[in-house]
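FORM 12-B: Structure-to-Sequence Request
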């Protein structure tokens, strides 16, 4: 009798913890810092009102300037020329339509989840200079446009709780690149689990069925 009591009590506690975690919010804090050749990225996860925290420090590695480059050769000899037939074009168009259909279906699931993600804080401060006053002004304007476009995308797909804080400071005397990005995302863990299950079900139940040239030819023969 005592064993059954403790077993039921343990199961009840585990069930209560599971329900609490599912309905709790996951907060993600991202802090990215860049100054010339130095990069640093910190990500922190918080659940249960900050009682459970997990921090990840990701120092970004700069590629050595003396390392060998990647060279892509474009060999235009006759032996590499491939003749494209009408069957090839029909096959490629059919496969492209099949892929777009599945990507659109996945996009709907992801977009519905993104609409439930809240951005509680978004700050992006930058200082840039290229050593020339005129060019620095042009680069500053381009960076403002990039930041505005990114914030526009975020506000379209996610929910912005506060107005983003953006600054771009030109430095006309020297070549410098300095930027710091801080943002806080928040969503319910249950919503993320539900979206993940929908994606798994979507890909399992409807994998793209790509067709080969032989299948296209057989379909033509059947239609005749």
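FORM 12-B RESPONSE
SEQUENCE OUT:
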């Amino acid at each position: 009798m005592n064993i059954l009591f403790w077993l039921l009590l343990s199961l009840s506690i585990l069930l209560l913890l599971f329900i609490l975690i599912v309905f709790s919010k996951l907060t993600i804090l991202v802090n990215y810092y860049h100054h010339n050749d130095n990069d640093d990225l910190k990500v922190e996860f918080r659940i249960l009102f900050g009682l459970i925290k997990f921090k990840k420090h990701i120092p970004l590695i700069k590629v050595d300037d003396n390392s060998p480059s990647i060279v892509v050769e474009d060999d235009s000899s006759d032996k590499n020329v491939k003749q494209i037939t009408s069957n090839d074009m029909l096959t490629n168009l059919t496969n492209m339509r099949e892929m777009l259909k599945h990507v659109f279906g996945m996009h709907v699931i992801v977009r519905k989840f993104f609409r439930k993600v809240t951005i509680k804080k978004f700050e992006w401060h930058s200082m840039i200079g290229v050593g020339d006053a005129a060019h620095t002004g042009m680069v500053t304007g381009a960076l403002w446009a990039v930041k505005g476009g990114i914030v526009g995308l975020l506000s379209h797909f996610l929910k912005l709780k506060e107005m983003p804080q953006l600054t771009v400071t030109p430095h006309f005397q020297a070549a410098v690149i300095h930027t710091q990005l801080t943002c806080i995302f928040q969503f319910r863990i249950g919503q993320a689990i539900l979206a993940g299950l929908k994606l798994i079900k979507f890909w399992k139940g409807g994998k793209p069925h790509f067709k080969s040239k032989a299948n296209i030819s057989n379909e033509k023969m059947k239609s005749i």
